[in-house]
Design goal:
binds flavin mononucleotide; 39% helix; 7 helices; 4 strands; NADH Oxidase; four-stranded antiparallel beta sheet; alpha+beta; 174 residues
Length: 174
């Protein structure tokens, strides 16, 4: 698939089958993540944590939604694989979010390119904030904070037909 085609057809999937993606597909996506731009080349300030354990993924979701209006909903929509993007504190704090955005987007496009459905999930941040014991449980190293995540898998029939959201980004030109 051409890069521009992957950009065009990528869309958020909000319903996944339980089927796992292959290790080979996961490796392609992780390799792509490693090629993402990172501010000031601070690659060692980023950590990716791959979760393939449904019970562990569900714990993050529960911690994110308990006591909120989304209680009982799965923030990962049943995805079988999740990549958590964590960051060390940066001299310029906004860099953590900017870097995570680059890494997640690179993963989403790589996944789209190889036919793996995907969605950007920021909601995990609330889960780790509400239950910091999850940091150790999922293996996020000391000093790293979860910033964003990627959900990967195969869309359920209903999710597959949801059209891509209408584009409405304003553009100024001079
Ligand atoms: C920074 C960021 C955080 C997001 N977090 C979530 C999330 O927690 N849950 C979710 O369902 N979608 C999340 N999304 C997906 C957006 O809702 C989605 O990209 C947007 O609606 C446009 O739809 P599209 O991805 O199908 O083009 C996030 C997207 C971005 C860029």
């Amino acid at each position: 698939m051409e890069t521009l085609k992957a950009i065009e057809v990528r869309k958020s999937t909000r319903g996944f089958k339980p089927d796992p993606i292959s290790e080979e597909s996961l490796d392609i996506i992780l390799k792509a993540a490693n090629e993402a731009p990172v501010g000031m080349s601070a690659f060692d300030s980023i950590r990716l944590t791959v979760l393939r354990d449904a019970a562990l993924i569900a714990k993050i979701s529960d911690a994110a939604t308990t006591g909120s209006a989304r209680e009982g909903q799965d923030i990962y929509y049943g995805a079988s694989t999740v990549i958590i993007v964590s960051s060390k504190e940066q001299p310029v704090p906004e860099l953590t979010f900017a870097n995570a955005g680059c890494i997640v987007t690179t993963c989403l496009l790589a996944a789209t390119d190889i036919g793996i459905d995907n969605v950007y999930i920021f909601g995990c941040v609330a889960g780790f904030r509400n239950d910091p014991s999850l940091l150790a449980e999922v293996g996020i190293p000391e000093g790293f904070t979860p910033i964003s995540s990627v959900a990967l898998g195969y869309a359920t029939e209903g999710a597959a037909v949801v059209p891509k959201a209408k584009r409405q980004i304003g553009i100024n030109r001079r």
